[in-house]
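[Solved] Which block belongs to which protein?

Original post:
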Amino acid sequence: MTDTRPRILENTAKLSSIIIPRTLAYATNTQIPARSPSERRRMNEGSKKSRRRRSSSLLYQEPQESMEHLSDQAAIPNLNANWVNAKGAWAIHFVLIVALKIFFSIIPGMKPDTSWILTNITYMFGSYLMFHWVRGIPFEFNAGAYDNLNMWEQMDNGDQFTPTKKFLLSVPICLFLASTHYTHYDLTYFTINVLALLGVIVPKLPMSHRLRVRFLSGPPDDRYLDER
């Protein structure tokens, strides 16, 4: 009689190897090697280059802030933009316009129509520089929360057609009408006045909110890549 015990033991070993999974032991002190600062910098630069290649259009929309930036914006009032709602902030525009007109009028040999168009251009240029060109705030208490927003976008928390923004829209239009009238509707002066007016009116419209021109602004989302 043949002994079947070795065959039974062999079959049992095969069956146990199928049913019972094998366990692997890992060292508890195994750590993933950390990247050096130079490697992280190279990865960020590569991400920026790829982002620039993907966003190659002339115009792009400024992305929304992260939750961290939004919490920084809500932490402290924005003194850079809140002053436009204060008493006397509206009157300063008329004072500046009158002062510019007097300044250009007292220049020897200056014609009245030329002084009006210079007043118009100077006010429009200063308005664009102040409200639409400069981004961020001159203070260091918001942790850079407004670094990618100009003053117009910071005003009234980005709301459109508030009383202050309506006033700031109407002042350039009224100055344009006055300048056009006192330059006797000359075609050359009228063209210059229209271009100056469009330069400050178009950036104030809702369609231009957070809209950037590539050769005037940096690539989008660079601040998020720098923080990683």
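(Second protein starts here: sequence line, then its structure tokens.)
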Amino acid sequence: MGFHTGSSKLSGRWLDWAITAASCQGFLLLGYDQGVMSGIIGANNQFGRDFNNPDTKVQGTIVSIYDIGCAVGSLLSFIIGERMGRKAMILAGGSTMIIGTIILASPTTLAQLLVGRIVTGLGNGFNSSNIPAYQAELCPPQKRGFLLSLQGTVTIVGLCIAYWMDFGLSYVDGPIQWRFPIAFQALFAICLVLQMLPLPETPRYLVLQNKQTAAGEVLARLHGKNTPVDHPEVQVIKAQIESGIEIESVGGPFRYKELLRGGRLQNFRRICLCLGVNVMQQFTGSNMIK
């Protein structure tokens, strides 16, 4: 099993299901991590007593500093993601989440709690930036919209699990009341890492790295079991990927100022649409409530 090609035992529909399950696992983790603090912070509970009943300013810092970690993780993905690849970034995100959860579930000081929030935010920034692209580049075009929408649904499931976990343990006395709900997210992160290990890198990334043979092998396995690399449909899809990359590369290597231009690819329009959707989502105030 190569890192870029994954396990040869997975192919066809089983490979599609494995990719979908891993992608949903990442957003289940995202939803749980976003919701778990809402039932812990600000209440007259063990958490408040352990941290000297933090005032509203400190509570706001604990909540908002997580988003700073997410923003840094997303920006780092933008800078190094194309070099490392989707799979490596998702593995880094899951591993970072495990480390962050260990820090976050074992603090005795406010400083350690804040560091844990930043680290978990960093890991979720990696995941939320790379998982949608990973699944989109591996799934069939006709299923892309449905599968990406499924990630949002699973995020809500993660939120519900976090809320009920907080509610159930609110009846328990002692530090386990808040430490266990926070530590529980490590289970989702560990599952994400284990699920990603046997999966392949995306063909588009492999073509960008001039790993043509590996890209052909991954495309053949996505097509179906025992499909040869020289299968006509595999070659057509590979040629389409190469053609798309060639069009994007017209005029030389990518430059950041291209994001502010229109032209044939409408980069600026795409950026505005993405920014608009995310800004309007934040304007609802849902993240502050969570």
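Accepted answer:
You had them paired correctly. Confirming on the second one: The radius of gyration is 21 Å.
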